[in-house]
Amino acid sequence: MTGDKSRGVSRRALLIGGAAAAVGAVALAQDELSRVWWRLPGVDKPRKAGELDHAGAEWIAASPANWRRADRPADYVIDRVVVHVVQGSYPVALKVFRDPGHGAAAHYVVRKDGHVAQMIRELDVAFHAGSRPYNERSIGIEHEGFVDRPGSFTDAMYAASARLTAGICARYGIPVDRKHIVGHVEVPGTDHTDPGPHWDWDRYLALVRKAAPAR
Ligand SMILES: [Zn+2]
After folding, report:
1. Checking phi first, is residue 62 left (phi over 0); if not, alpha (psi -120 to 50) or beta?
2. Which of the two ends of the chain, N or C, has the fewest CB atoms closer than 10 A to its terminal CB?
């Protein structure tokens, strides 16, 4: 990884030079320049092991077999949050998402007591929705519990998940509504039913709006 990284840096430097030369005398603002060169193929944002997108989450890496490296939102627009229910416990979710044979994992897992694990970076594509276009456009959040047990969804879980979703919506400019914050059941072509009839969408959206970070 170290070798790749140093090679990446020199390649990046060359590409910046190339992009700047291409626009000639036009001076690009620093942020415009960075947007241009992040879009070039083969260029990735620098990553640090254990880096989090959601402050307060615990980093527990999913198996790399259960997600795909990407560079969102530069390569894919993120405009959906997909709400899931594990049909099992928090430890079971962590275990299967770390299992390379599972073939699926979500970015986040929320525990009954409100503890949040981040398992995949938001810039990467997690295999959670069973649909390639939906995986590419969304962030997936799993919740400990079962769709047919209303008691699975605690106050602490709703509050923590809403804070998480509020942060995601703010980061990518996603509107806080039911068109953009959806259940797995609403993903086109899915046969999954989560989060199920006991998930209180009105309550959840109200909490997400309340948790929206001040701009
Ligand atoms: Zn699901």
Report:
1. beta
2. C
Asked about 136 being catalytic, the answer comes back as: no
- Whole-number Å distance, alpha carbon 211 to ligand 1 midpoint, is 24
Instruction: Name the catalytic one among 122, 136, 142, 144.
Output: 142
Distance 89 CA to ligand 1 centre (A): 14
Whether 180 contacts 79, CB under 8 Å? yes
Distance 56 CA to ligand 1 centre (A): 23
Give the start-to-end residue ranges of the domains of the chain: 2-38, 58-211
Q: What is the pTM of this model?
A: 0.80
Residue 141 near residue 105, CB atoms below 8 Å: no
Q: What pLDDT sits at residue 215?
A: 60
pLDDT tens-digit map of 120-155: 999 999 999 999 999 999 999 999 999 999 999 999
DSSP assignment of 19-70 equals HHHHTTTPPPPHHHHHHHHHTSTT------TT--SSTTPEE-PPPGGGEE--
Residues with CB under 5 A from ligand 1 (ion): 84, 184, 192, 194
Of 3.40.309.10, 3.40.80.10, 2.60.40.10, 2.30.42.10, the CATH number of 58-211 is: 3.40.80.10
Taking the centre of ligand 1 as the mean of its atom positions, its distance from the CA of residue 215, in whole angstroms, is 31
